[in-house]
């Protein structure tokens, strides 16, 4: 996407579909979409939790679901998504997102409680921040936040 350009969905005929072990449809999410630099869904290692990126008319939302389709929570992000992540245990997630003509922001969240914290990407050493299995947010070699 070029800087300053806002993409708007006019119509979509795709949907994210989660299949069971026998091939049956367990649930679907018609708002799921893939950002320019990523996948529409990220699963925990045990496939019990899935993080879906949903494109709305003017912004993106990250939503967490159980394997059976129960929506655990959602976190609004921005007009573009650079990357998203879910911890292997499915407890914590993150989205690096931005608004037109605004700096990038990390959003970190606890899937169980719905708690959220935002960190300007410029405050992360080397531009890298990530959520750990224990709920700590690490930027470089420094812990900058910890979910309780």
- Give the H and E element order: EEEEEEEEEEEEE
Tell me, rounded to a whole number, the average pLDDT: 88
Strand content: over 45%
Cα end-to-end separation: 37 Å
Structural class: mainly beta
Instruction: Summarize the main sheet.
Output: 4 strands, antiparallel
The CATH topology corresponds to Methylamine Dehydrogenase, Chain H
Strand order of the largest sheet: 3-4-5-6
Give the number of DSSP strands.
13
Please, how many helices? 0
Please, how many domains? 1
CATH architecture classification name: 7 Propeller
Quickly describe the structure.
The chain is mainly β and 148 residues long. 0% of the residues lie in helices and 47% in strands.
Task: Please provide a written account of the structure.
By secondary structure, the chain is mostly beta strands. The strands form four sheets. A four-stranded antiparallel β-sheet has the order 3-4-5-6, with no helix packed on it. A four-stranded antiparallel β-sheet has the order 7-8-9-10, with no helix packed on it. The chain has a three-stranded antiparallel β-sheet with strand order 11-12-13, with no helix packed on it. It is 0% helix and 47% strand. The protein has no helices and 13 strands. It has one domain (16-146): YVTN repeat-like/Quinoprotein amine dehydrogenase (Methylamine Dehydrogenase, Chain H), CATH 2.130.10. The radius of gyration is 15 Å and the shape is globular.
């Amino acid at each position: 996407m070029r800087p300053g350009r806002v993409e708007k969905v006019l119509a979509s005929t795709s949907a994210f579909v989660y299949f069971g072990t026998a091939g049956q449809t367990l649930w679907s999410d018609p708002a799921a979409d893939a950002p320019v630099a990523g996948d529409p869904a990220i699963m925990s290692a045990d496939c019990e939790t899935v993080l879906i990126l949903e494109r709305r008319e003017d912004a993106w939302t990250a939503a967490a679901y159980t394997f059976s389709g129960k929506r655990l929570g959602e976190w609004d992000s921005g007009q573009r998504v650079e990357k998203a992540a879910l911890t292997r245990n499915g407890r914590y997630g993150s989205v690096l997102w931005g608004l037109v003509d605004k700096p990038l922001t990390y959003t970190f969240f606890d899937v169980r409680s719905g708690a959220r914290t935002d960190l300007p990407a410029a405050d992360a050493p080397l531009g890298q921040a990530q959520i750990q299995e224990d709920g700590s947010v690490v930027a470089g070699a420094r812990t900058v936040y910890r979910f309780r």
